[in-house]
Design goal:
12 strands, Rossmann fold, 6-stranded parallel sheet
Length: about 350
């Protein structure tokens, strides 16, 4: 048997959080340049790590599909056993995922001591006392294993195929190579995180009139109505790219932008990861924990005048925090970034 170290990274389940794990993945690769490193990942996030040169393999863990139930889990355990990993880093908080690595016979199992799972880990790392950014939370596991990360910036790799698809999509929409592009991402996985539609519309009009940019409204399939609503409120044309791009193509689109303006969502972090200038609008969530991070040109705008923030109040009805972000201040920040 070869002596190459074989490492399994058990990743988290959300697009934004997977981006937060990329500095950790890079740190592990730099510490073990010759290791075989695989990542266990939810199918919906797999695309986020495709073409990542730091990983040798992506293993889909489909909890709702082929790995559902005890039988599905047993199948996954057998699959992992065959691969003979010697070390597992469990970024996910779940008890089950930690147990799976033990059942798969992985000798060294490193993770945080969440969900009473310390006894299934060989190294149970204390949960940090204070709230820290998700990137640092993951890097904490690397540090606990004696790895000193050199960099805390996100990574997201986009290929020529995606860039070409985006060029063709933009050309079809009447946007040429020379046009400056502003991409707005008005979605958010819950309503209180969203800046109001009329403000996005007004800002878009002002940017078009002042800078001659073209505006693209980007997001997931579920954001199509939201995008159409914003476009309807605008006096100038806008292109809707919701649900028409893969995650990778969305990355290429964001990378093509002169500026991205987004709520606290996965695409905002993707924009930072591909090196786009980014303005992040924050309300009920904490930029300290899930704001843009690492290298890059970005600015966070948040207004917490009357509330105790972060509140994470999904049921909030008045959205005071997001409503109090003015079009003028976002315009001013855009102005700085588009001038440079």
């Amino acid at each position: 048997m070869s002596m190459t170290k074989r490492i399994l990274v058990v990743n988290v389940n959300w697009v934004g959080d997977v981006i937060f794990s990329t500095p950790f993945i890079k740190a592990v690769r730099e510490a073990y340049p010759d290791a075989y490193i695989a990542c266990l990942i939810h199918p919906r996030c797999k695309e986020m790590l495709e073409d990542n040169p730091r990983l040798d393999e992506l293993i889909a863990y489909d909890e709702e599909g082929e790995h559902a139930g005890l039988l599905g889990k047993a199948r996954l355990v057998m699959e992992l056993r065959k691969k003979r990993f010697d070390t597992a880093f469990i970024l996910h908080r779940s008890f089950t995922k930690a147990l799976l690595t033990r059942l798969a016979g992985i000798e060294e199992r490193i993770g945080y001591a969440t969900k009473n799972r310390a006894f299934v880990l060989t190294k149970a790392v204390e949960i940090p006392d204070e709230d820290i950014h998700k990137v640092e939370y993951f890097l904490g596991l690397a540090r606990a294993a004696g790895i000193a990360p050199k960099d805390n910036s996100y990574e997201f790799f986009v290929g020529d195929k995606e860039k070409k698809a985006v060029r063709e999509f933009l050309a079809k929409s009447g946007i040429s190579e020379n046009d400056r592009l502003v991409v707005i991402c008005p979605g958010g996985n819950w309503d209180p995180k969203r800046w109001p539609k009329d403000k996005f519309a007004k800002l878009s009009d002002l940017l078009i009139e002042r800078f001659g940019v073209k505006v693209v409204i980007a997001g997931a399939k579920k954001d199509i109505n939201l995008a159409a609503d914003i476009k309807k409120r605008m006096n100038n044309p806008a292109v809707i790219a919701c649900g028409t791009t893969t995650l990778k193509e969305l990355g290429a689109l964001l990378g093509r932008a002169a500026l991205v303006i987004a709520n606290d969502t996965g695409p905002m972090h993707m924009a930072v990861a591909v090196g786009a200038k980014t303005i992040a609008l924050f309300g009920p969530t904490s930029p300290k924990l899930t704001g843009p991070y690492g290298k890059g040109e970005y600015e966070v705008i948040s207004r917490y005048e009357k509330c105790d923030i972060p509140c994470y109040d999904v049921a909030c009805k008045d959205y005071k925090c997001m409503n109090s972000i003015k079009v003028e201040e976002v315009l001013e920040a855009s102005d700085q970034m588009l001038k440079e």
